[in-house]
Structures are given as structure tokens and as C-alpha cells.
Amino acid sequence: MTYGVRLDPRPISGEASVRDLVDQFFFSYNAGRLREACQLFARKLAQPDVTIGVTLSGALTPTGLGAAAIVPLIRAGLIDWVVTTGANLYHDMHRSLGFELFGTTPFVDDAELREQKLIRIYDILFHQDVLLKSDEFVRECIRGPEFQRPMGTAELHYLLGKYTQARERALGTEYVSILTAAYECGVPLYTSSPGDSTLGMNVAALVLEGNQLRFDVERDVNETTAIVYNAKKQDGKSAVVILGGGSPKNFILQTEPQIQEILGLDEKGHDYFIQFTDARPDTGGLSGATPSEAMTWGKIDPRQLPDTVVCYCDSTIALPILAAYTLATVEPRPLKRLYEQRDALLETLQSNYRQKG
Q1: What global pTM score does this model have?
Q2: Please, what are the domains in the chain?
Q3: Biggest alpha carbon distance in the chain?
Q4: Distance between CA 204 and CA 195 in Å, rounded?
Q5: DSSP states of 39-65
Q6: Candidate list 232, 299, 336, 356, residue with the active-site label
Q7: Can 299 be counted among the known catalytic residues?
Q8: Measured CA distances, 337 to 44, 54, 58 (Å)
Q9: Minimal CB count within 10 Å: which of 4, 53, 215, 351?
Q10: Element containing residue 200 per DSSP (H, E)
Q11: What percent of the chain has pLDDT above 70?
Q12: Cα dihedral sign for 297, 285, 88, 102?
């Protein structure tokens, strides 16, 4: 009788690589789930016919994981599109502008920090001027003529990426932000709640000056849906990798109910699902909802439930391990450059929807 894979513990040596640790020593519990996630990504998601969407929630970029993990995956063609909080893109640009963030202890006197005009994100500190000067940069950009119209968040972030790239090059820094990497690689970046961040706050402030920039959230819904629809209709597969939960998780998963229930087009759900989260499922929140629960909404293909993994682990632990394991295991893929295909993909979705009617 076969019970599963035999656990064969052996002493860990100082020469063990990340790949060795994951494959040979992440035995059970959430270490086992992290091993399964890494192996699923490397063996199945990294195939050329899979379109990989990634979500970012929680303060990942202030830690440096945007440049350290997300950017290398984008450049290797292993992230095709992204749904993120606006905060992650905003805080990621601080280093692009030459500002510094510092690691500290979370056990500090916050009243004293306030007096010193220091901002704290748990164990990360930076001066209030970092925010004020970053706001100035954002406003300077979006006052430009190319921003004077309604647009989806992918286009907004693409245009901003041109400016962060220019600033990084001017400073001669080795730091590369997600905005810059996505701009260079044609990876569309969406924000599910564009008003819920300092980027959105600056857009709103400039509206009071007469600026014409507006968020076209309906376009975001349709563009993301078109990306998934195209991936499946071209005999490919769709994968989602969810870091945290929250609004980005729902936004990337709702693409399938949008196809099936709202547009009435034939589809089954995403093929691969990986999530790293600390949210419990028993509280009923979306962040902790399991792949099998998502399957009941049409978000996950029921035939693909074996290719779903939920690892209850802090994303700041899981992401660098996932990135290191994948980059050491698979070859880079050709860039899909979905940003440049958005209009064509949207036209196909619209055409099929109208034909159905």
C-alpha cells in the first residue's frame, strides 16, 4: 500500500542550496506546502503556455522584496501581469528617487518617532520627507500632458514607469522598481482599489486643480478579464499566485466569474492557484478563502484542484524562497508583453460577448 512520499530526513550540510532545502528538507506542515508551491510553480506554472498573474498585498515593497524578488521574476518572464495595492507601487518608488528606508525594531516609542517626523511600518523607518518628496514627484509626473484624460491603472503605471526608469538612470542607482521593470518588460500593473493609496490621493488632489486624469476602473475589469480569457482560448492556461489576500486577491480571481456569469461566455476557471497567507478560512473572509471555496464561485477549474496550494506563511518568508527556487530551477521564458496587447485582447473579448448576444 502506498501512503505517500517517504520522509527521509538527513543532516543538513552547510553547502545546501535553497533548492536543496526546499526539495529535501521542507518536509511537512507549512514547510511541506511551501515545497509544493515552489515545485508547482517550477514544474507547471513556468511552462510557456501558462499566463501567470501575481497579486501583492501587505507592505511588501518597503521591505525591498519588489526589487529583490518581483523584478527578477518579471525580467525572467515568470510574471505576466500583476494586481497590487497602490501602496506597494508608491512605496517601491522611494528608493528609485534616491531615498533611504531603514530596518529597526518594532518595539520603539511611536510618540517619539512622531516628534522626530519618522514614519514606521512595523520594523521599517523612514523620514516624513520621503513621503512629501515622493508626492511631489508623482504630482509633477501626472501634471504632464500625456496624463490629461481618463485611463486604466495599467496605463497610468506604465506612464509612471517611464519616469521612474529615467530617475533611476539619472541617479546611477542599481535599484530597479516594479514600475520600471514592468514598463521595460510590457507587464501590465493593475490596482484593484486605485483611490486607496497615496497615488490615488495625489490624483484626487490634482483634480481640485483641474487635472483631467481619472481612473477608468471599468477598463481595468475588462482588461484583466480579457487577459485571462485570451490565455484560455489560445489553448493555454491561467495561473494565479497570491501574496497575502485582500482586494487584489478578489480582483484577480473575479476574472473568471466575469467571463462565465456576467458575460455568459464558456469557461471553467483558473488552472493553477498558489496562495501565501496568514488569514484563517474559518472567519469567512476573502483573504482566507480556500481554492475549493473559490471553485464554487467558478474562480477555479474544479478539475484542477490538485494543482492548488495554500501555504500559511508570511509572504516575506515565502516570496524570496519561491523566487530563488524558481530562478534556480527553470529557464527564463520569452516575455508575453501583455501591456502592448491590451487593446487587441479587449477587442476579442468584446467581439465574442457581442456575438453571444
Answers
A1: 0.94
A2: 29-356 (3.40.910.10)
A3: 73
A4: 8
A5: HHIIIIITSTTEEEEEEE-SS-GGGTH
A6: 299
A7: yes
A8: 20, 15, 26
A9: 4
A10: helix 198-207
A11: 99
A12: negative
